[in-house]
Structures are given as C-alpha cells and as structure tokens.
Amino acid sequence: MNAISSHTTALQLANESQYLGWRAEQALGSPDATLFSLDVDEASTRLSDVYNSNRLRLAGQQRDFRMRLRTAQIGRLGLATLSFGAEIEIEQSGDRPFVLVTTQVSGFSRVTTAAGTAEGGRGFVVVDSAGQPVRKRFSGDSERCNVRVDQAAINAKCAALLDRPLDRPLCFAPFSSNNGMVERRWIGLLQMLLGYVGAAAPVPSEPIIHNLEEAVLLHLLLEHEHSYSEALRRGRNAALAPRHVKRAEDYIRTHAREALSLERIAEAVGCSVRTLGEGFHKARGTTPMNFLREVRMAGVRGDLLRDAPPGSISEIALSWGFNHLGRFAADYRRCFGESPSETRRRTA
Predict the structure, then answer these.
(1) Are the CB atoms for 76 and 129 separated by under 8 Å?
(2) What is the mean pLDDT of residues 93-119?
(3) Helix 151-162 to helix 205-223 angle, to the nearest 10 degrees?
(4) In the CATH scheme, what is the code of domain 235-345?
(5) CA distances from 307 to 188, 254, 282, 310, 347 (A)
(6) Which one is predicted more confidently, 234 or 264?
(7) Contact, 313 vs 307, CB < 8 A?
(8) Which residues have CB under 8 Å from 196's CB, separation 6+?
(9) Does the pLDDT at position 5 exceed 60?
(10) pLDDT over threshold 70, residue 25
(11) How many CB atoms lie within 10 A of CB 198?
(12) What is the pLDDT of residues 134-159, one digit of tens each?
C-alpha cells in the first residue's frame, strides 16, 4: 500500500470509529445501563465487577474525573463504552475467563503488554486475552467501545475450526500489524451489533443476532493473530489427513476413558507406532497422546457443564484418565482460562 492509500485508509478508519462512538452513544445511553463514579477507588471496584480486577491511578486532575461505563448484553456478547474524563492509568490483571476487544472512538491511549507497547487514537484496536496482564494509559478525552467475548465460546469455535480440542491457552496478539482494513471490518461488525441493542427482539431477529455472534468469533479467530493461527492456516492440509490418522482420532474419541497406549491405538488402526506418530505430526501438528489428552480435557469440561454432573470434580477427572489431580487442575486452567470449580459453579 502506497503512502497516499495508507493515509486515506487511516482517515477512513478515524471517521468510521468516530461514527461508531456516536452509534454507541445512541445504543448504550440508557440510564439503567450506566455506571457512574466521581471517586477513583469506587470506579476501580465497579470496573472489577464487570471486567478483570484492576488498579486505577489518576494521572490528571481529580476535579475532571468522571468514570462512565455504559453496558449492554446482546446474545453472548457484552458491549460497553468506557470513559474517565481525566487522564488515568489502569493495570488489569487478566484474571477472568474472557477476551476483551477495545476500540478507540475518541481521544488517545497507550497500551503495554508482555508483547510490547503500542498507542493510537481513533480506530486503535486492542485484544486483551484471558490470563494476560496489561497496563493502559488513557487521555482525558479518551472513550473506548468494548466487546467482551466469553473464553469458553471462542475456545469452542476455535476447536470446531480445528476439528480437535485445544491443548493450550488461546492467546491473541494484542495489536494488529496490518494496513487498517482488519480494524475497519471489525468496526463494521460493531456497528451492526449496536443496531440490535435495546431494540424489540421479535423471533425473526434471533438468528440474525446468532450469526452476528458467529461473525465476531470468526473475525477474531481468522483475522487476528493468536496461538492457533498457524494451526488454522494448516487446516486445508489437515483436512487431507491420512486414513489411519482419522481412524485413530475416531478410536481415541470412542475409547478416551480407557487406558490407551500408542501401541494399542496403532494396533487398532492397523499401522506401526512410528507411522501413526509421523501421520499425526504432519497432518495435525501434534502427537496421538496429546490428542488423547485434549479429548479427555474436553470430556471433563463437558461433564462439568452438564446441569447435574454426577460425582465430585476429582471423580470426574479420574473417570477421564487424569490420575495426577494437581497437574490436571493446572492444565485445565491453561486450556480454558478458569479452574474446574469455576466451570462447575456456572451450572449451579
């Protein structure tokens, strides 16, 4: 992209994000959906109730501080706008199981993560991953439009695209490294979502909202870089996996609760252990035993999310072949961004 085209795209992005702010003002302006505070400590507490626990520090004038958080829920997505009225710095712990995508609609922000620091004005998009602390500094006139996506929902969509359970946390690169077109498409999605906030919801609109949710998940997984991006890019080749690999996957899913070994799996599908391992490595980028662990982890989560799962968490984990319970709990949190007990509480 040449300098003129790049400048034009930047102007379009700024204008579209400014319009997004206006749309959000109209859609989220209900007094019942607004949290307001003139006190920094109270604002920090209120934000912790909605997002991650945080530490809020005033960098501007106290007399200008006016925290306003306006929220709405549409389907499984949480929408909000956030402003402070004064220059502030906030440190977020990343301790809650969700992905937060923030879009600058006015003012300026500087964001620091383990991946580095980036800053920007209108149209600056940041993706906060579960488990990843972040520090942000906002100008006094800053306002951001936020979308909260449940970690379980985006994990499930990623696993469906991969056609296998996730074996490690799904973490996003916080900053985009493109020419602004991804941000423009994201803002277009937000504008469509805002059109359904607060409106009467007749039955015909439900599939539209559902598909908008799906579009958000697909946009994040396919257009933003993350820990499974390369695996998704290999998806076309993975679909052409050898027959013995697909048969092994079916066998593992069917017998995941049993004591399985490489030798037993290879024998069941009629190939050598070496051939089986090489097939999984080339087609799936993993090993048969890692795939087994992923299937078992997903099985435990499925049992915990049932309305009335029988047995204790330990019993459920043991029934899926996890004999080292301390290691299981740590691996579960890495996979799903929450502990097994937190998963179970959501079904209580």
Answers:
(1) no
(2) 92
(3) 70
(4) 1.10.10.60
(5) 37, 23, 39, 10, 6
(6) 264
(7) no
(8) 74, 205, 208, 209, 212
(9) no
(10) yes
(11) 15
(12) 999 999 999 999 999 999 889 888 88
**Comma-separated ranges of CATH 2.60.120.10 domains in the chain:** 3-232
Residue 264 has pLDDT above 90, yes or no: yes
On the CB side of 204, how many CA atoms lie within 13 Å of its CA?
Answer: 0
Provide the pLDDT for residue 65. 96
Q: What CA–CA distance (Å, rounded) separates 145 from 142?
A: 10
In the chain, list all ranges with CATH 1.10.10.60: 235-345
DSSP string, 318-335: HHTT---HHHHHHHHHHH
Partners of 298 in the β-ladder: none
Is residue 44 very low, low, confident or very high in pLDDT (cuts 50, 70, 90)? very high
CA distance 138 to 69: 14
> Does the structure show a pLDDT above 70 at 204?
no
Instruction: Answer whether CATH 2.40.128.590 is correct for domain 3-232.
Output: no
**Paired tokens of 242:** 């050898």
Residue tagged 């079916």 (tokens): 250
Share of the chain above pLDDT 90, in %: 48
What is the pTM (predicted TM-score) of this model? 0.72
Contacts 24+ apart (CB under 8 A), 50-54: 50/78, 50/80, 51/92, 51/96, 51/100, 51/148, 52/92, 52/93, 52/94, 52/95, 52/96, 53/92, 53/93, 53/95, 53/96, 54/90, 54/91, 54/92, 54/93
The three-point CA angle 166-167-173 to 5° equals 75
